[in-house]
Specification:
By secondary structure, the protein is mainly β. It is about 0% helix and about 45% strand. The chain contains one helix and 107 strands. Strands 19, 21, 22, 24, 25 and 26 form a six-stranded mixed beta sheet that branches. Strand 3 and strand 4 form a beta hairpin.
Amino acid sequence: MKTKLRIFCIFLCLSVVNNMFADILRNEEYTYSTITGVGKYNEHEVFRILDGSSWFCCDRLYSRILINGKIIMCDTYSPFINRYYLTHLKAGVNIIENTDRTEKEYLIYGYPKDYTCLTNTELLIAIANDNFAYWEKSKNNGGSWERIETTDMIYSTSEAEECTVMYRNVSSTGNYSEIVTVKYIDPVPEAVKTNVDNATKTVDEATTFTLDIPDHNYTYQWMHNGAEINGATTNTYHIDEIKMKDAGSYTCRVSNECSETVSAAVTLTVNKCPQVIDFPEFEVMTYGCDPITLPQTTNKGLTITYQSSNQSVATVSGNIVTVVGPGEANIIASQAGNEDYLAAAGVTRTLHVNKIAQTITFDELPVKTYGDIPFTLPETSSEGLPISYRVINTEVATVEGNTVTIRNAGTTEIVASQEGDEHHSAAAPVTRTLTVNKAGQTITFNEISEQQYGNPPVKLNEVTDKGLTITYTVEDESIAKMDGSSVSLLKPGTTTITATQEGDRNYLAAESVTRTLTIVKGTQVIAWGEIPNKEFNSPDFDLPLNTDKGLPITYKSDNDGVATVSGNTVHITGVGLCNITATQEGNEYYNAAVPVTLPFSVTKSYQTITFEPLGTYVYGTGYVQLTASTTSGAEIYFESSNEDVARIDGDKAVITGAGTCYITAKAVSTPNWYDATPVQRELVVEKASQTIDIEDLTDKTYGDAPFELSASASSGQGVVFTSSNPQILFIEGTTARILGAGDVVITATQSGGDDYEPFSSTKNLHINKANLLAKANDVERLYGDENPELTISYTGFVNGDTEYDLASLPKASTDAKVTSPVRMYDIGISPIEDDNYSINYQRGTLTVGKAPLTIKVEDASKIYGDANPGFTFTYEGLKLRESAEKALSVMPTAATTAKTASDVGTYPIEASGASAANYEITYKQGTLSVEKATLDVWLENETVAYGDEPEYKLYFDGWKLNDGEDDLDILPNVVTQADVTSYPGSYEISLEGGLDNNYRYNLLKYTRYLNIEKAVLDVTVLDATKTYGQPNPVFVLEYEGFKNNETEDDLERRPTATCDADEYTWYGEYPIRLSGGYDSRYTFNLHDGVLTILPEGTSITEAEVEGLSIRCENGAIIITSEGGIKAVEVYDVGGQLVASEKDANGSELRFDIGRQGVYIVRLWTDNGVMVRKVLVK
């Protein structure tokens, strides 16, 4: 431990200044203070204000002074008003002055004033004049001083341990400065560790926090989560019973006058403490018992909550159970825990409450007959509850309430029962037999009146007086036939019918009855109305074919000149009156029908003429054939209204001139037909046409000589010639002269007459121009560009002519537009007309080439397991603002190596297959990014027995394809505070971590629990044996099912084995019962044992007799051996001797016991006495 002391000797001269500060010091609140001290070093002045607590410095030259290594600012001095603009010295600098200014000539400035640590100590001393001689120090509070021989401006010293040192200056004149007292203190270590006996605790445990440094009278303050703990001011901190609120960070602030250190934090983790409900089993209760008091709190003092699963059996208020009805209810005890304790494992106990017993009185039933009225049975049980009745055979009888209704003859049992109610047990059922005898019945069958064949079936009675169906039998079934209770009449004759009824389950057979049936022939009728009058030429008509009984009718006409009959069809032959007679002679079933005669008349018919229209004809046609007919077939004659146009010649109209006339067709009457109405038709004869034949003309050339025209008319009359353009061709008579080039029409005309139409004929004459060739020049461009300039070259000009001598200039053009597709286009020339030239045009060619087009596949992404997305493209180079769909005849396709099941990563997308008539296509590759799919993962509540490792099942949602848990790389971990040693209760479980290449885990933050139930511990009391008169042995318990290497010594309360037998209990077997016991971790499964008490002097041992066999057959005990048995005694479990054999020399002994039960067999052998247990069935 070293201390450095720096001494600055500053010689000052003292003066007394009694001025008041009038200014407010900058950044300070000192005002109007009197200067009580002043010092000077070079141009630096130092002042002390009146209150004696603060020192200042000032530098008129705006310089600075270093004190304790810190810069202290000084402002200017005003000599006119004696004011200093001062800045307060830095905090922590203390100044000590010589209070006797007249005797002491200097001031000492020192730091610190009261104490310092063993490191980095600094001291500033200001000394007046140049009389500084040496330093002195004292370590015994001024009792003695040690001289320090130094006149250096900087003095260094060191102290090896904690101490208090006084310092002063001595001048050459023997004067002393004020004393500076410095206390050297060892600082608190910078690093302090906090220790705890165990960083993880359970509620109610104790813990102690300590520090790893020795105590040097430090000041201590313990802190929890940064807050001071009240009263925790020693170097240790102890908690007797930890609670959950005590969890967190613990530190301790260690300090002394020199320094302060906060210890490193330690975190205390506090787990909730398990608690246990001690809830014993219920005894069987009876309805009406007193309320039951249950344990009020758990082993940790928290109030237990009880619930009843059946409020109709028991209710719970607090820890009091009140029985409200018979039945069974589960009483559930729970404690939900609090901020310090885990929820206790629920305990369920079953409460059984018995009901009140009751009986049924139900006497034997009398015999009944079918048809008897309903009768009643007893209504209530011994406890006044309604009895329920059930008929075993409901075909014999039914019961409603306590009333029995007979349904059929027979025998059935009726069971009386009472199921009890909420307070009563069910009564024992009582069964009685009901017998119902059959009843008699009678057939009613009256005499049958005489019947006629053809009558409808005769209806007889269907049932007897008891409603049973009667059976009828016909003696001669060729005369009549039965259909149920209906008699069908088959033919005339006489027979008998017998009625019988055999009875059924409820009725006896009825006495049979026989009756006679007589059937006579039937009658038939010809059903025929009047015959309506007819006209001649009416169509044939039919009469009825059969009588009403279906026999064929015969018809006869009395005037075949008017009508004839064939079968039942009438045909009209002439005009007049006629009678038709109908007859039917009958057969073996029907008498002959009464004949019927009906008259009717036939009158004349009207005839009509059919005359086809004549149409229009041309003069010069010879005749017109006339075509007409009548419905009667009579002869037709014709008449003409104008013989200057046409005359009649039989059935022809001969044309005599052009014009119009009417042709009339007529016919006369016959005996069966009236006169026909005449029919008139118009005949039109038009004028005849004529033709002109003009001599053929050949083409001419402009400037040819005149030529002659020639033509003749078919009518033989003269022809006149005219020209369509006299300026090109002038005609005079038959002479034509060429006046110019071009086309002209020459017309030859004949004016016509009375019988001929006028007529003209023409010939075309072409006068050729001189030939000239105009050719369009070939050019080319790319698709989408504008067309270049189109030019024309000429061949064939004569007489020095050029294109500028033409009537107008031809223009070259093409159908190709800027939008035209790639191909070759014609360049045409717009034709012009010229007076002297005939211009021929030759087309040129415009070639449109393909434009360049780049197709790029756009980057895409998808989620793992999804189908690849549709890929899109961008197009560079499209012309004319075309869309790709318009520009391409075949759209591009994109393909990638990635499939639906491809792993997460990037895959190239290649484009191909596009086709475009107008573009030269190139491709650029894209990238498909396969991203992770989201997989929801969660837990459900799990249940496990204490001491068993839980097998957690993870649940997933979001699988892709056929993936499953086995396809994941790293599964999430299950996190819980529980382990195999954790007590039964509920522990929160959650998921964390996990990693997979193709899935991003979404760990769902559901609150789920691991429910630890008590483990099943099988406890078995071993069978024991003793002889009569001995005290019971110590019963031995065996345990199976311990967890975590635990033994019975770890149980909170073991089960107890008890037996009702004692040392005076007679021979036999007695149950050893297990009861009680409790443990927070186990549910006891108790297995009772058997205590066997033997007669004195015996014990149960293994067989020692060769070939010994003891068995039971039909209530007898049979013992066989190969020898060695001397005597046998058999005892029941009550110790009574039931059989014995004193001289047992045979190889087989038989003892007929006759009662089932357990028996003890005692055998005397050569080796001693042997006892065996035997079960007789």
